[in-house]
C-alpha cells in the first residue's frame, strides 16, 4: 500500500511465522496514559497531564486472500495468546511485541472485496522495539483477493435471493460477543427472518473452497411491514449464540477453525 507517497507494510507474527498483510490502513500506536491535574483557581497555572505509562492500541484493516485468511482466523481462535506486529511506515520501522486482539469486524459488500478490521490492545508483556538487521523483506506478495457474492448466503439450507451487505462483528468486552447484521431487499418470500436461524453459511471463495458457518442466530431487531411497490432496502441484526466455523476444503487443505 502507499501512505503519503511511501511504500508501507504491516506483518503479523505468531509462533515465529511472518504473514505480510494486504492492508489498507492501520492506526496501531503507542499512546500515553495518565491523569489530568486541573488548573488552580486564581493562578495562571494551566491544566497539566501526568503521564504514568504507555500502551499499544489501535486497529488495522486488510483485504482477505488465501495467504492471510488462515493466519487471521487463528488469531481469533487463540484469543488469549499474544502476537507481534511489524510495521514499516517508510520513515520508521517498529515492532509491536506481545499485543492481543480486542475485537474484529468482517464486512462484505456485494461485488466488492472482503474487508477485515482487527482491533488490538496492550498486554502486560507488550513493548516496542526497532527492527534488527536480520529481519527479512516483508513485502506482501500479490494474491487473488476474495470478493463477496451476495447471492451465496444460505440460511437453514435455503439460498437467500440477495444479501447486498453484511457486517459480522465480535467484541470480547461486550455481552453480545458476536453479532451479524444483514442488509437485503425486503421480500415476503424470504424476509423478514423473524425466527431463529439454526445455521447460516457465507461463501468467501468457491474456487478455493472457503466458507463461514454461523450457528444459532437469534434476531435482535425487528423489521417493519412496509406496503410499497418499489424495492425496500432494510437490515436486521442477529446475535450469534452458537459457534462460528471457518472451513477451508480444497486439494491442499481440509481445515476447520472453530471460534
Task: Give the SSE order as H and E letters.
Answer: EEEEEEEHEEEEEEEEEEEEE
N- to C-terminal separation?
30 Å
Shape: globular
The mean pLDDT is 83
Range of helix content:
under 10%
Strand content: over 45%
Number of helices: 1
Structural class determined from secondary elements = mainly beta
What is the tally of beta strands? 20
Q: How would you sum up the major sheet?
A: 18 strands, antiparallel
Radius of gyration: 22 Å
Low-confidence stretches: 1-5
How would you characterize this protein structure?
The structure is a single chain. With 259 residues, the chain is mainly beta. The chain is built from one helix and 20 strands. The chain has one helix spanning 69-77, and strands at residues 2-3, 6-7, 9-14, 17-21, 23-26, 29-37, 48-63, 83-88, 93-109, 115-121, 127-130, 153-155, 158-159, 165-171, 178-185, 197-205, 210-219, 233-240, 244-249, 254-258. The strands form two sheets. The protein has an 18-stranded antiparallel beta sheet that branches. The chain has a two-stranded antiparallel ribbon with strand order 1-2. A hairpin with a 5-residue loop joins β9 (93-109) and β10. The longest helix has 9 residues, at 69-77. Mean pLDDT is 83; it is low at 1-5.
Amino acid at each position: 500500500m502507499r501512505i503519503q507517497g511511501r511504500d508501507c507494510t504491516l506483518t503479523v507474527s505468531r509462533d515465529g511465522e511472518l504473514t505480510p498483510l494486504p492492508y489498507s490502513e492501520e492506526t496501531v500506536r503507542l499512546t500515553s496514559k495518565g491523569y489530568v491535574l486541573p488548573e488552580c483557581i486564581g493562578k495562571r497555572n494551566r491544566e497539566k497531564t501526568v503521564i504514568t505509562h504507555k500502551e499499544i492500541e489501535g486497529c488495522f484493516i486488510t483485504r482477505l486472500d488465501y495467504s492471510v485468511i488462515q493466519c487471521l482466523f487463528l488469531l481469533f481462535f487463540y484469543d488469549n495468546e499474544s502476537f507481534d506486529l511489524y510495521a514499516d511506515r517508510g520513515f520508521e520501522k517498529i515492532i509491536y511485541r506481545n499485543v492481543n486482539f480486542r475485537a474484529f469486524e468482517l464486512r462484505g459488500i456485494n461485488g466488492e472485496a472482503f474487508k477485515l478490521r482487527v482491533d488490538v490492545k496492550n498486554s502486560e508483556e507488550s513493548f516496542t522495539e526497532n527492527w534488527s538487521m536480520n529481519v527479512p523483506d516483508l513485502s506482501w506478495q500479490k494474491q487473488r483477493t476474495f470478493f463477496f457474492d451476495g447471492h451465496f448466503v444460505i440460511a437453514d439450507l435455503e439460498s437467500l435471493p440477495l444479501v447486498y451487505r453484511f457486517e459480522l462483528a465480535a467484541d470480547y468486552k461486550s455481552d453480545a460477543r458476536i453479532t451479524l447484521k444483514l442488509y437485503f431487499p425486503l421480500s415476503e418470500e424470504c424476509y423478514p427472518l423473524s425466527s431463529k436461524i439454526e445455521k447460516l453459511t457465507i461463501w468467501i471463495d468457491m474456487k478455493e473452497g472457503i466458507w463461514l458457518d454461523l450457528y444459532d442466530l437469534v434476531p435482535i431487531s425487528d423489521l417493519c411491514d412496509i406496503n410499497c411497490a418499489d424495492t425496500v432496502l432494510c437490515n436486521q441484526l442477529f446475535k450469534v449464540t452458537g459457534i462460528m466455523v471457518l472451513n477451508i476444503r480444497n486439494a491442499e487443505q481440509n481445515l476447520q477453525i472453530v471460534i
